[in-house]
């Protein structure tokens, strides 16, 4: 294990696996602290919900306007508010309401662009949300900022990013990318638990890769939802002081 060449506060590994779970090939080295926090987030989500959905999405910033510095924080705040509102509406019309705490992992990366983009994983109660639903278009959103009852998770994600950037939803469609195989399910009580858990972690390991992350610019490169236990300290500031994950 070596120190990160651009941030001596972080350690990297060139191993093909971590804690007995395979890492995505050809993307190493990986930041160890990031891998540990991805594992912790998965474990916390499964402790809350034995049936968990893991959704992958990429978020980009517009080059045509100034964006809020706290855009990614605003995104998750909107996601949580939309899910709470959705479950409340279901209860009011007599449909079953599920607890659904939003857990997440995100990594900010920048290659040749002057703006970062975000690789995001959202972890939800599968009994409440099991798919992305229909993908929204500029026409289906129509610039309406009001979330329709019964809209899918992909719709909520686009609306959350729009609100984070202070855009109308139709303008945010092109800034949200849903990659292939964007949804993973893990069932703690199922016979395919190991395969499901392995597949989800391997996919999320991409967020821990060391390449294309920038340090020393006053911005975080990786964050996850607050762990139930003491978090693995991650310092993106390239300074001697470490700080817990928010």
Chart the SSEs and their pairings.
Elements: E1 2-4, E2 7-13, E3 17-18, E4 21-22, E5 30-31, H1 32-48, E6 51-60, H2 71-92, E7 103-109, E8 117-125, H3 138-141, H4 153-165, H5 169-172, E9 176-177, E10 183-187, H6 193-204, E11 222-224
Query: How much strand?
Result: 15-25%
The total strand number stands at 11
Ends apart, CA distance between termini: 26 Å
Number of helices: 6
What helical percentage do the residues reach?
25-40%
Q: H/E series, N to C?
A: EEEEEHEHEEHHHEEHE
**What's the shape?**
globular
The residue ranges in which pLDDT falls below 50 over 5 or more consecutive positions are 238-246
Largest sheet entry? 6 strands, antiparallel
Q: Averaged pLDDT, please?
A: 86
Radius of gyration: 18 Å
Structural class based on helices, strands and sheet pairing: alpha+beta
Any overview of this molecule?
This protein has 246 residues and is an alpha+beta fold. Helix content is 29%, strand content 21%. The protein is built from six helices and eleven strands. The strands form three sheets. Strands 6, 7, 8, 9, 10 and 11 form a six-stranded antiparallel beta sheet that branches. It has a three-stranded antiparallel beta sheet with strand order 1-2-5. Strands 3-4 form a two-stranded antiparallel sheet. A hairpin with a 2-residue loop joins β1 and β2. The two termini are 26 Å apart.
């Amino acid at each position: 294990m070596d120190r990160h060449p651009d941030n001596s506060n972080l350690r990297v590994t060139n191993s093909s696996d971590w804690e007995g779970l395979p890492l995505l090939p050809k993307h190493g080295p990986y930041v160890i602290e990031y891998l540990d926090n991805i594992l912790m987030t998965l474990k916390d989500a499964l402790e809350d919900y034995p049936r968990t959905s893991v959704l992958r999405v990429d978020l980009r910033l517009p080059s045509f306007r100034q964006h809020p510095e706290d855009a990614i924080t605003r995104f998750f705040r909107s996601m949580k508010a939309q899910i709470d509102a959705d479950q409340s509406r279901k209860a009011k019309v007599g449909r079953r309401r599920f607890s659904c705490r939003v857990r997440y992992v995100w990594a900010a990366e920048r290659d040749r662009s002057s703006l970062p983009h975000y690789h995001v994983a959202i972890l939800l109660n599968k009994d409440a949300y099991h798919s992305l639903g229909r993908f929204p278009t500029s026409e289906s959103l129509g610039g309406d900022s009001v979330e329709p009852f019964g809209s899918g998770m992909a719709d909520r994600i686009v609306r959350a990013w729009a609100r984070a950037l202070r855009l109308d939803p139709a303008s945010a469609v092109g800034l949200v990318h849903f990659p292939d195989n964007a949804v993973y399910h893990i069932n703690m009580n199922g016979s395919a638990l190991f395969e499901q858990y392995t597949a989800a972690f391997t996919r999320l390991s991409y967020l821990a890769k060391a390449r294309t992350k920038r340090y020393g610019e006053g911005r975080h490169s990786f964050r996850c939802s607050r762990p139930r236990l003491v978090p693995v300290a991650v310092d993106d500031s390239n300074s001697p002081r470490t700080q817990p994950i928010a």
